[in-house]
Amino acid sequence: MNRPAPRSTFLAACRDLLGRDHVLTDDADTGPYLVDQRKRYTGRTLAVLRPADAPQLAALVRLCVAHRVPMVPQGGNTGLAGGATPDASGRQVVISLRRLNRIREVDAANMTLTAEAGCVLADVQAAAQAADRLFPLSLAAEGSCTIGGNLATNAGGTAVLRYGNARELCLGLEVVTPQGDLWNGLRGLRKDNTGYDLRDLFIGAEGTLGLITAATLKLFAPPMARMTALAALDSPAQALALLNLAQRMAGPLLTGFELMSDFCLRLVAQVFPQHRYPLFAKPCAQPYAQTVLLELSDNESEAHARELLERLLAAGVEQGVVRDAIVANSLAQSNALWHLRESIPLAQSATGLNIKHDIAVPVSQVPAFIAATDPLVQQIAPGARMVTFGHLGDGNLHYNVMAPEGVDPARFLAQYQASVTAAVHDSVHAHRGTISAEHGLGQFKRDAAAQYKSPVELALMRALKAAFDPLGLMNPGKVLPD
Q: What tens digit of pLDDT does each residue of 53-80 get?
């Protein structure tokens, strides 16, 4: 029987391959790689390994396979489901892809950009902008998350309504397979009907089928103008009616459509009083149950975008859907409106632990889901405060539950997380939805997701995993239950 070589032999081989400075074993050096973004998981590792490029990563994977060392890939470590955190065994290695950070090519005529997996999303956006192009993926962590992680979790963000998830923004991949082979599928083609779509298997797989090393991404012409507005409404049903109206009147110009509940904006005002909600009737008293932030991206002119947005809101008022509205008069005002939306998670964090859900249901089911699920949560945890916000345009809600006023958040979480989450997930399933819309499964939602998948679906997923990674060394313990 072939037995794995001693740990010292493996680490010595890693140092020979990567150089001493890129094999981290001291606790002070490895610590930042071992805790997830939410500090929900803390693992241990044999070493943090930092390859310089795709061929070196392929050689490293072959070395891990030879020594039967499990591998946990990690980009910016901004994930919210524990997908990039090693377990507590100390036998796994963390493979950091941060050194794979080159923009390999910008093909403005083909409207594509090829970036390595460790490129920070904001740097990819900047490279596109320098070529007078737009890479539209945008999310709160864009200053630190990486393209490899975005694709591994099929990230969403604020512009999915117009441009789609990360999957829709990717034309080709380069991937190191679990055997240490390097597959170059970096094709900048919109049409390629030559067999199985391997690209889509790796996107959203969270590193369990192979390690993404580079991607060819779609670019777009930047809009001539962006116009942002806030609209106040009485219910999620009215927000859905406004969305339908906006889609009819604005069509593909509609880029963002974000729903925020009354309590979300009250929370922001409480934690960040400098962020004034412009539709407050009086300070810290907001009479509207729901607020929508909507944005148009116009390829004609700012005047055209403003005229269209004002007509849209006027039609909403006339139809009894919109109670009040404001259109940004400047880029600074637009940024301030978006800052209200982006401050909701920060306000939650500042007030302590809460029960978070990243769910999606069909857009048409969002009002029914909220109406059915809020009472279920109150039955389980009376007085719980609902922090409901998210991307109504694509059906993705951050359906979060805070402790009642005066109740210790940690105690509330310990007492109610399991029962509240089970009720929310059951309701999501009843409304034909998913329990993970844009954060992935990782280890946090791995077991729960399996409860709602059919035996056929689970069997197909297990067959794929076994075919690609028969030794089970690629990010074990993630996505699929053991």
A: 999 999 999 999 999 999 999 999 999 8
List, for residues 404-433, the tens digit of each pLDDT value.
Answer: 999 999 999 999 999 999 999 999 999 999
The closest of 1, 88, 2, 7 to 45, measured between CA atoms, is 88
Asked if residue 433 lies in contact with residue 362, where contact means CB atoms within 8 angstroms, the answer is yes
Separation between Cα atoms, residue 144 and residue 360, nearest integer Å: 25
Helix axes 7-18, 54-67, angle to 10 degrees: 170
Domains by residue range for the chain, with CATH? 6-96 (3.30.43.10), 103-218 (3.30.465.10), 223-351 (3.30.70.2190), 353-439 (3.30.70.2740)
* DSSP string across 447-459: HHHHHTS-HHHHH
pTM value is 0.91
Q: What is the DSSP letter of 221?
A: P
Distance of alpha carbon 469 from alpha carbon 341, whole angstroms = 41
Residues 6+ apart with CB under 8 A from 465: 208, 209, 472, 480
Max CA pair span of the chain: 78
Round to whole Å and give the CA distance between 449 and 441: 8
* 346: number of Cβ within 10 Å: 16
Q: 63 is written with which tokens?
A: 């070395």
Secondary structure element (H or E) that encloses residue 388, with its range: strand 385-391
- The residue assigned the tokens 């995993």 is 465
